Write the structure tokens for this entry.
Amino acid sequence: MADGTTEVTVADSGDGNFVQSVKGKTHHFLSDASVDKGGQDKGPTPYELLLAALGSCTSITIRMYAERKGWALDKVSVRLTHKREDDMGNAVIDVITRDITLEGNLDAEQRARLLEIANKCPVHKTLGNNPQLLSRLEGGG
């Protein structure tokens, strides 16, 4: 969309209780609940998609910065985990860990700078900014 809005449509696929059809601007794929939650493993789970969005954005942002600087970054990989932990009180907190691997002829200062840049990827900033989540019902019936 021209105004900076990103849009994705998710709907029942008709191929099982939890299988979802996900459509972006030019891509289409399936998502599903995990098998232990009654899904059929026909696509990534919602949390896998969340981690994939953060990991992809992290890797792309690092790559763009390194290329702009002309740094010898050969490969970026990002392994992410998510778990829910008791914060020693009455709340449960979500913990996402990113393990970033940088391959190439980079010195310690460049590697440290690329870690700083990882924390500035747009998805990281969005997740860390407590985004407003608005839900609306459309149509009738």
